Every structure is written in structure tokens, then in C-alpha cells.
Amino acid sequence: MIRRHIARKPLYSGIASREGRSAARSCSLDRESFSRPELSSALMTTAPHPGRPVGPDSSAQPVALLALDDTLTDRAAAFAAWAKEFAAAHSLPEQWLHDADAEHSGRRRDFFALAKTTYALPGTVEEHYTAFRRRTPQLVPHRPAVNAAIQALAAHGWQLAVVTNGDHDAQHAKLAAAGLADLLPTVVVSSDHGVRKPDPALFHAALARLGATTKEAWVIGDSLEADIAGGNRAGLRTLWLSHGRPHPGGPLPQHTADDIVEACAWLLAQER
Ligand SMILES: [Mg+2]
After folding, report:
1. What burial class does residue 191 get, using C-beta atoms within 10 Å of its C-beta: 0-12 exposed, 13-18 middle, 19+ buried?
2. What per-residue confidence (pLDDT) applies to 272?
3. pLDDT at site 203
4. Does residue 165 share a domain with residue 65?
5. What's the pTM value of the predicted model, to 2 decimals?
6. Both 132 and 160 in a single domain?
């Protein structure tokens, strides 16, 4: 019944404060957040939830609908690991791959077309693209602090689901590589439903899978367009992961945290 205890904070409380921005900049996506006393305290010292109620009252449990890429997983780290492998396999500069990725972000076939012409790579653009899509999910790092944060939410009675845009096999492979597949068995992937975030239908599909309603649900994600705009449109509370970015304008979340570990600690702290 977390809703009773959540103090309604002003919209955008995390970003409006200079201190918050400074803290956000100081955090990196990969750091072990349990070394931060305020986060370990929030995650580790609250009394465990006595157990998940069953039956008609289960909709009153707090719900977290979690994005995947750059929320639960570190996509940049997976790309860096792939770039290292690919550069070694084809004898080309690893840094060139990072530079080309920045230039062709989101246009992966253009990226491989440029690599092929610049370095006379064997094989077709399509073959490289297919291999990339198969390999990078396997290179998503396992981050113990993230897994512990998710475990803490579950231990406190939160119902959890992953809501993600992408391909079924790739998204499940990422969860497995991150060691999150067993912790998060409810996964709603856009390719299975024929709709993508920010369409509210994908969030409502996740709530239906959990047997939950909108009133206890948070959407947590790094994308203002997909996660925050989508969650707002679905009538859910939203928590944006800034990863140190200032808010660029656009959809407003109810709260902002630097990363998923900080977000989980904040959600648990609201129960007190
Ligand atoms: Mg994302």
C-alpha cells in the first residue's frame, strides 16, 4: 500500500535542484552503488515485506514497470565490448567504431555500410548487421548492484515487469546476460504485441499480466519519449533516469533519479 505513504513531491523535484544535478553528474552508470551509504541504507535496512497477498487485494501492491535498454542494462557497455571484438577480428581501429556509432546512432545499416567501404570488410552489410544484433545482447554486462536493487524491490512486495521496445529474442537475451531473467520473469516486448512505447497499450498489457491496476504503478525508464510520455499517457506515475543529463524539455516525470539503483532506493524510501 505504498501509495498512502508516498509524499507527493513537486514535479521534477530531482532535476529542479542544483544539488540533484550535481549528484547526477557525479554518478556513473556502472558504479557499485552499494558503496554509497544512503543507497545501501535505503535498500538494505527497511523491514522486508511480510509476503505477497493473494486474491482480489493483490492489485493494491506497488508495481514497477521497468524499461530495459539503458535502464536495467548498460547498452553502451555492450557496444564497447562488441567494438573490441569486432576491431580485433577485422583489424580496424576500435575508436573508429565508437566515432562512427556516434555519427550513425540508430542507423545501424549506415554504420556497417560506412565500415565496409572504409575498411573493405568482407561480407555484406546485412550479414554484419545480423551478426551485430545477435552478438551485442550477449555482451550486456552483469551488474550486481542493479540485481540487488531489483531483488530489494521484490523482497518488499513490489510486483515487477519489464516493458521494452525491441525484438523478443534480443531483449530476453539481454536479461539473461545481465542475470535478471529469473528476477524478472514478466517481460512485455513490443515485438510480441504489435505496439511500441509510448503507446499506453504496452503498459496496460504489462499491468494485465500482473493482475494490477494503474493506481499503484510506476514506470521507470531512461527515455522521456518512450517511458515518461508513454507512462503519463497510460495514467501511471513516472520516474525518469537521467544518467546525469539535464532535462531537455518535454514530458515531465513525477520524479527523477540518476540510475536504476538510485530509483529503487527512492521508491523503497517512500514506504517509510
Ligand atoms: Mg531505454
Report:
1. middle
2. 67
3. 98
4. yes
5. 0.77
6. no
